[in-house]
């Protein structure tokens, strides 16, 4: 039988996993945390049409994508379970004004385009009283939660719900999810977001976009963004900053 050559991305991914093995926790059980007296809050990051629905915009997938569809499915499962139990849920929705670009990215999630709204599987969250919604106009949701009076909507949510553990899912693993995770970890370390103790990132509940080298070469100024590699690197960096990375979440 002939040898099947590995793609350059696959070779790099294997090398990366060997050099930087990511030891994920096998399971995370929010109910166990509650039995220990710790409240878990679910955070959904940018699970909107403009990033997740095929053909919805400049930054949406051009064809069905397994990593993104798995993320949406898992986020929907967790959101339903949390809301049924009346456990706290916070959702960020990437939303931009047409006259305020966000370089280096092309226009996306413009108000009124439909890109800025939840994917169909999560649209019910807009009317659920258990959910706190925050439309954001920059990558970092924590920064976007800062109000002119010096308060922070996300920090206030954590405090008002007495949340000790935040469970993070969404898109993109290495961009909005990562920046938000790093910011709240820094806020926790400096006592700015009490009573938060742990930040948990669910790997299968996160996804990023795919921009292969051969496609990026035809886009002026574009940086190649192999999906599997950047997803893995995002998780590694998050763990290096102090997040717990889990590969499954059981709602029992």
List keywords for this structure.
34% helix, 6-stranded parallel β-sheet, globular, 252 residues, alpha/beta
Structure description:
The structure is a single chain. The model has no long low-confidence stretch (mean pLDDT 94). With 252 residues, this protein is α/β, with parallel strands linked by helices. Strands 3-2-1-4-5-6 form a 6-stranded parallel beta sheet. It has 9 helices and 6 strands. The radius of gyration is 18 Å and the shape is globular. 34% of the residues lie in helices and 16% in strands. Helix 7 runs parallel beside helix 9. GO terms for molecular function: nicotinamidase activity. This is Isochorismatase-like domain-containing protein. Belongs to the isochorismatase family.
Taking all residues together, what is the mean pLDDT?
Answer: 94
Return the structural class: alpha/beta
Shape: globular
As a percent range, the share of helical residues equals: 25-40%
Q: Could you give the order of strands across the largest sheet?
A: 3-2-1-4-5-6
Radius of gyration: 18 Å
- Main sheet attributes: strand count, strand direction, barrel closure: 6 strands, parallel
Brief rundown of the structure:
Helix content is 34%, strand content 16%.
List the topology elements.
Layout: H1 8-19, H2 30-35, E1 39-45, H3 49-52, H4 66-84, E2 89-94, E3 131-136, H5 141-144, H6 153-160, E4 163-171, H7 176-189, E5 198-207, H8 213-216, H9 227-240, E6 244-246
Parallel strand pairs: 1-2, 1-4, 2-3, 4-5, 5-6
Helix pairs in contact: 7-9
């Amino acid at each position: 039988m002939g040898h099947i050559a590995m793609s350059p991305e696959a070779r790099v991914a294997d090398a990366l996993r060997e050099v930087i093995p990511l030891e994920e926790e096998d399971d995370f059980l929010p109910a166990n945390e509650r039995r220990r007296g710790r409240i878990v809050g679910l955070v959904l990051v940018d699970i909107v049409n403009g990033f997740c629905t095929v053909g919805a915009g400049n930054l949406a997938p051009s064809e069905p994508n397994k990593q993104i569809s798995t993320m949406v499915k898992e986020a929907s499962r967790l959101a339903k379970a949390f809301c049924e139990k009346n456990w706290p849920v916070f959702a960020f929705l990437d939303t931009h004004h047409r006259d305020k670009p966000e370089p280096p990215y092309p226009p996306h999630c413009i108000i009124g385009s439909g890109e800025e709204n939840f994917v169909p599987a999560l649209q019910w969250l807009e009317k659920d009283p258990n959910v706190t919604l925050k439309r954001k106009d920059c990558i970092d949701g924590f920064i976007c939660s800062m109000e002119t009076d010096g308060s922070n909507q996300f920090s206030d949510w954590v405090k008002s719900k007495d949340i000790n553990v935040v469970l993070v899912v969404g898109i993109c693993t290495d961009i909005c999810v990562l920046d938000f995770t790093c910011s709240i970890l820094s806020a926790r370390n400096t006592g700015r977001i009490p009573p938060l103790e742990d930040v948990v990132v669910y790997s299968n509940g996160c996804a990023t976009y795919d921009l292969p080298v051969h496609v990026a070469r035809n886009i002026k100024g574009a940086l190649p963004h192999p999906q599997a590699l950047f997803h893995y690197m995002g998780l590694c960096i998050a763990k290096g900053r102090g997040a717990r990375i889990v590969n499954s979440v059981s709602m029992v």
